[in-house]
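Box 3.1. Reading complex inputs
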Amino acid sequence: MNPLNALLASMVPVPGKKGNDDRDPKFEKDLLTGLISLILLSICASSTVPLYGYQIARKMEAEELAGPRLKQGTIYPVLRALEKNGLLKSQIKASASGPPRKYYLITEKGRKKLEVWQRTWWRTRDFVDIMMGGGHDE
Amino acid sequence: MSDKTLIKDYLKDLSRELGDVDQALKVEALDDAEEFLEEMAGEHLGSGTAKDREQAIRKAIRAYGSPRTVAREYLRRSTEEERHPTERMDGPFMGVLGVYTHKETYLGLLYLLLMFPLGTMMFSYILLGLSVGIGMAITIIGIPVLIFFLISIYGISYLLGRFTELMLGLRMPRKKRKMYLVGKNWTRLKTMLKDWRLYSSLLFLFLLFPLGLVYFTVLVTLIAVSLTLITVPVWLFISGSTDISIFVGSTFAQAAIYTLAFLTGLVLFTWTLHLSNILWYLHGKLARSMLLKV
């Protein structure tokens, strides 16, 4: 390796301390930015009881290996935004252990929106598969 | 370092990273962070030493994300007015003719005019509530009356705060999660009565009467005068008389007078809208500083 290449190589950050090369955190983050609303709305839709932020975060964490890694603090502002747009509603209830909790429940408007988002997602997923040459054999 | 200090430090950093945003947004962000950190640490609280707890908190903070990452996410998901509250507050001071094109002008004017009937009602209600409550405090009935009265003031203040947000577009300050009325009735009552803003709300609702009276008198007078001036030519046209006795002889003088009246009316009307904008802006700020946090 010539000195210039060696210098350049030393400047490139190593992805992940454990040398986990099959994950690209920046790419994952970019992808998630658009999808996080869909994911959170789906989690709320699949629950019959209202969930508070920490529970929702835990549900995502449980699937962390399959899914992308994200800082859990970034889901709270999305929940707030979904509520402001009327897709979720919330209720404050006392907690035995800590400060009162904010419980989120999906609204009728949220369910309708979720259907649209899901269809959009499936279409996009198929499109990406096709572009990558896999997926559909039509 | 104790775990409480760790959480406090984190919240302080988050607050700093959020910078000069809307106070309501800041309270929301800090509440969310506190909920997560306390919940996650709470799972480990029962088990182990102080050192374990500290480690649990550090783990929770790592999972939550750095203050900068989290703050950035809040800013990105927030509305324009939450991100730049100071710019939003300059809203009423728009260009000279800009007042006509902003819906805030009309909503604000309507809001100010409504303060008069509302203020009158509140004035009577507060006088009645206080005099009955305090007057009968010596008997057993007075105290429940007073408490019931304060609960109603709490409700009215909350509704007025929401209404003010809706009409003026100024966000009222948000209360921290700890100030929410949750738990047993007795705890709720204590939380409510301990909030100094309940009493400043009471004062604000009382002040609505003189303030509303002034707003109403000034604005209605100015609007009436300017509309009259603007419509002078119309009135004369409708009445079929093109002749005002004091201007006999000169149709040119008459035309000049009509035009002058019309123009003066327009200027006065525009000026009135500006005045109303300044008034609702100041009134909104006063409401923000005195009404209950919503």
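In summary: Residues 251-290 of chain B form the longest helix (40 residues).
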